[in-house]
Amino acid sequence: MARILPSYTEPYNIAVAVFHLLSLFLIIYLVNLNRLLNSTPPEVQKLVPRRWTQAEIKNTYNRLCKDPITTASYKAELPPRLQRRYVVTGGSGLLGGYIVLQLLERGQPPNTIRIVDFQTPHRSDLLCGPGKLVPFYKADISSAASTEAAFDAPWDKSVADLPLTVFHTAAVIIPSARSPLVNAFCEAVNVHGTAHVLASARNAGADVFISTSSASIAVQPVEFWAAPWKWRHHPQNSAQILDESDFFRPLQAHDEFWGNYPASKAKAERMVCNANAKELRTGCIRPANGVYGHPSDNLLGAPLSMQIYPQWVRNNVQSFVHGVNCALAHLQLEAVLAKPDSYTAPQAGRPFCITDPNPPIYYGDLHNVLSMLARTPFRIVTIPPVLMLLLSYAVEFYNLLPLRVPFLAGSLPRLPGGLVYLEPGLFTICTHLVGNMNEACKPVEQGGLGYRGVLTTLEGMCQELVDWNREQEEHAKEGLKAHYRSSVFLAEEIRKGGGTLIAVGT
Asked: What residue intervals traverse the membrane (predicted)?
């Protein structure tokens, strides 16, 4: 009689079948999520009335090559000159530099302006003409003593008695980190640094203080991992309207923000606005998600410097703001707060969201501008967004591992290049984000700034490519390559060096 052995085949086959079924389900789930991340919700599509054509991009670029946008070309839109002194923290950088240039353009003498920054001025438009005559004071705003020293330096006797306005644009931008384990850097500069600048401004007798905040404060974290039965719906919060309404509600807890950067900017914004009083009128400007306008920016300049640029957001829609428009909004707010009784005005002690004066655009249109107009090597590599999202969790785990397991700190190498920023928070800030600047556009008598901007996003981006190509060609003639450090990469250099030094403004 044949011996009958117990069979293990049936349970094994069931386990294999279940594994294959779950694997298939996971693949289908990820493919569907990738489809959603690669598409634009219908309600967002309606906010973009038209796309930029290639002819429109080329014609705008050629027009600006012949007639570039300069501070002189929009001088008539600037508020009138005021008899005041100015301190601009972060004045060497993108936004602060435009504030300095606009002050000079409207007739402000260079000796009434003071740049306070860790970087010496490096923009070509600040190294010639009246810009090169503006005094520079090096400071680390994370240090109260360093900040105080920059403010305490004597002014020219002929202007020392003028009232003082402080434009505080300095910050460090950490674009994706969200863990409290790595929050100290943002806190040191963006929160404590703002407190130091505010205290120094008071001690120096300032009566107007305007700080650059960020519209990203209003961004709620995107919930990418939706329930499977919601397979037709885009992830929750993947499309958001950004305004100032959150400011009038209690401050969120840290883990309710999408990252450490917006959490720190929200604290700083509340600090500045709460300081509003008769003796020191305060307010904030919230630039929409990306500030651009100089080859050192993160939006256009950083990709151009990379030459090979991975992207997964071509169909995402966002509002952006050129540094020229953002600087103008700062001066318009100052024009209101310079009046001694304005501390009770509706514009005082609150933020205003600012975008370029046009509908939001697709990232794909931005990419077309770069690909079509850059005269330096530049190539876009498209990657499935779901793969990058999955990778971001692995990058975050790796970045935090030395902090969670301290004995590994000296043995794990840092991730190279921009890969270190590929953490989940980056995906929230790169979804569909549309700025609402209705409050800023209201007339001054109705509580607004009368803001309308002086150049569109198409003009601003084409002008930046004009500047990029010209500077690269000039350096090529000398056998050199123009090199720019974006605020993100500068912040990383500072952090790696163990310091908490001032970086370029938002």
From this structure: 12-31
Please name which of 170, 129, 86 lies closest in space to residue 487, comparing C-alpha atoms.
170
Rounded to 5 degrees, what are φ and ψ at 368?
-65, -40
**Cα gap 392→420, rounded to integer Å:** 9
**Over 50: is that where the pLDDT of 502 sits?**
no
> 110 near 159, Cβ under 8 Å?
no
Number of domains the chain contains: 1
Q: What is the dihedral of CA 453, 320, 322, 140, to 10 degrees?
A: 130
Sort residue 424 into left (φ over 0), alpha (ψ -120 to 50) or beta: alpha
DSSP assignment of 260-321 = HHHHHHHHHHHHHHHT--SSSEEEEEEE-SEEE-STTSTTTHHHHHHSEEEES-TT-EE-EE
Q: Is 16 within 8 Å of 9 (Cβ atoms)?
A: no
Answer whether residue 8 is part of any domain: no
Instruction: Please state, in angstroms and rounded to a whole number, the distance separating the CA atoms of residues 490 and 494.
Output: 6
94-125 confidence digits (pLDDT tens): 999 999 999 999 999 999 999 999 888 988 89
Distance CA 415, CA 354 (A): 35
Determine, yes or no, domain membership for 417: yes
Domain CATH for 227: 3.40.50.720
- Run of H or E residues at 36: helix 9-37
Distance CA 95, CA 91 (A): 7
What sign has the CA pseudo-torsion 50, 52, 53, 58? positive
DSSP string, 164-193: EEEEE------SS---GGG-HHHIIIIIHH
pLDDT band at 476 (very low <50, low <70, confident <90, very high): confident
- The DSSP element (H or E) to which 32 belongs, if any, is helix 9-37
235 near 223, Cβ under 8 Å? yes
CA nearest neighbour of 170 among 146, 139, 148: 139
Which residues face 117 on adjacent strands? 138
Which pair of structure tokens corresponds to residue 468?
A: 């990029």
Q: What's the pLDDT band for 501 if we cut at 50, 70, 90?
A: very low
Does 505 fall in a domain? Answer: no
Q: Kindly give, in sequence order, each residue whose CB lies less than 8 Å from that of residue 499, ignoring residues fewer than 6 positions away.
A: 140
Nearest to 224 by CA among 363, 400, 390: 390
Is there a domain that residue 296 lies in? yes
Give residue-wise pLDDT tens across range 149-186. Answer: 999 999 999 999 999 999 999 999 888 899 999 999 99
State both tokens at 276: 């509003």
Domain enclosing residue 315, as ranges: 42-496
User: CB of 492 within 8 A of CB of 420?
Assistant: yes
